[in-house]
Amino acid sequence: MSDLIEVRGLRKSFGEHEVLAGVDFAAEAGTVSVLLGPSGSGKTTVLRSMNVLETPDAGLVRIGDASLDFGSPPADKAAYRRAVKALRARSGMVFQSHHLFPHKTVLGNLLEGPVQVQGRDPEEATAAARELLAQVGLAGREDSYPSQLSGGQQQRVGIARALALRPEVLLLDEPTSALDPELIGEVLAVIRDLAAERWTLVIVTHEVRFARDVADQVLFLDGGVVAERGGAEVLTEPREERTRRFLSRVLDAG
Amino acid sequence: MPPFRPLALLALVVGLLCVAAPATADDDAAPRVVRVGTEGVYPPFTFHDQDTHELTGFDVDVMRAIGEEAGWDVQFVEAPFDSLFPALDSKRIDVIANQVTVNPEREARYLFSTPYTYSHGVIVTSKDTDDITSLADLKGRTTAQTASSNWAQVAQDAGAKVQYVQDFGPGVELLIQGRVDAIVNDNIAVLDYLATSGTDQVKIAGNAGDETLEQALAFRKSDPELQQQADDALATLAEDGTLAKISEKYFGADVTVKEGSRDVDVAASDSRSTPEILQDTAWPMLRGLLKGTIPLTIASFLVGLAIAVAAALARLSSIKVLDQIARVYISIIRGTPLLVQLFIVFYGLPEIGIDLDPYPAAILALSLNVGGYAAEVVRASILSVPRGQYEAATVIGMDYWQSMRRIVLPQATRIAVPPLSNTLLSLIKDTSLASLVLVPELFREAQVTAANTTEYLPLYAMAALYYWVVCYLVTLAQGPLERRLGRYAT
What we know:
heterodimer, A: alpha/beta, 8 helices, 10 strands, B: MetI-like fold, D-Maltodextrin-Binding Protein, domain 2, 17 helices, elongated
């Protein structure tokens, strides 16, 4: 059991439309996995299944010692809720459009999870939060409200908020897609630092060049299945025709 | 939105509905508390003294004398005449002392003491009317009467159309304004009005029949013991001349014997100038505002908001039954008049054993009303919080209630403040209806003085001014509150 993350046979349909048709992957601790693929390929659904923002129809998700088999979930509702809670507790999530709490300060956003949910000592959590803010380059902005920050700063707070929970895995859902081009770099730099610090990351992104630099594992999704997988070389020397087509489209656009 | 636990919500709603506990039972220990219902706005029988502001009048004095004789602890409860009988039925009061005329319909429903007033009816018209001098002339004409008074029946029997008014004074205003042709009423009340108002706009145009009418105390059929005690006391008071003395004081004649009312000479019950009246009423009205209107408003608004949040969450719930219950509740509240809701809670519920005191009853009815209106405001505000906020709360591990309390509701509050301030302003004004369920508040004080003095315009204008000032202060507070709640938005 050397893999920290295990995803097996993930299936999900929205009505008639099958979004995931059996997705498998595994990731070791301290590695960066990049999910990419055309829109509608199911990559975001895979990510959202890993913390049960979507409930898969079948398949298994395991992070560390918490796992949930959606094909045969616990019959007892309370047991199911416990399993979901345990799974969620092992990951942090960074959203495409940050979803910071607008009515809380930057520091308040970082403390909400540790203090309210995890019940940690406020003083200790505050010190840890300040450290995280410094790490993402936002020391001194503790008392600002999200609306007073730029898009890049907001997303960096979003990353710090996810890290404040001390998760085993960080899930990033297109963290730079909603940003103005000139703000993308500062966010990618922060993620690069996390990769260098051996955080376990699962990233959905269209930033191919960035992915090439940081990915230990690349999963190319198409039509709800993993069409091609491998190391970063998938992005430079793809074997599959559809991977090639997708990459040239994305790179041309970039 | 994630599903949530229905039982917790249900417990919350039930808890809120139980906030007002049922009234305590009567105490059997002597002396017996006898609650006496009376208008307080019908001089010279039951009204407030212009100097002391104490309840006084012929009926009040008679009742106090009876209480002393019978060994009762007499407590007066003031309510509009039309509320007195429902109040007696629902055991809010034990006896009515308010010049209740004995007639067969009433005798079928209530017990009456021996009469303590004999009066005769007169017809009042404007000074220029000369074609109405007897009951026969009322056929096809319009009269202004109190809904449940005996005189309304007399006018109707004479073939008159009846326009209902709350008490005698407003009826005279209608008469002066030419909106009705006549009023049939007790000659004593009319003489008092003429003396007090000093008006020459209306006159006594003739007698309403030759009958002498008898006024007596009304009791519940189930309370013959009380009636017997009252009769014994009345007999003693008649014998020792107490009744005659009280009558002389007010009427210069003994109306407690038959035909006595023919010699009545009434002095003005109030002779102050308009500025004096306003000056004397300013404090009682302020007291009504501080002790009635404002506490009622605050309590009803807070409980109402809690109900609104519960109803809004039920409407948004994935559990169909909760949604349906909330829909029905909101529909009933918004589809029925507040006045009717108040009467159902106060006069209706006692029939099924839910017996609330005036304040709790008024607060319950007003909060349910606020809850029904505010529920949709709260629901819309919750819906306006982006879905991403729920997801962000979920992924940091919050459960439904945590994310509602810490993330969603604080943001919804900011959006809800402007429309909710409308609800609050309406509520402040709606509390004026509470006087109808025996809660003394601002407008009631205005009515009490207006009845004595006939100064309707200045007194009601002053009441309006009080309401306006309170509402204005609320709107002044709204700006800073919105800025504070919106400090995070640029």
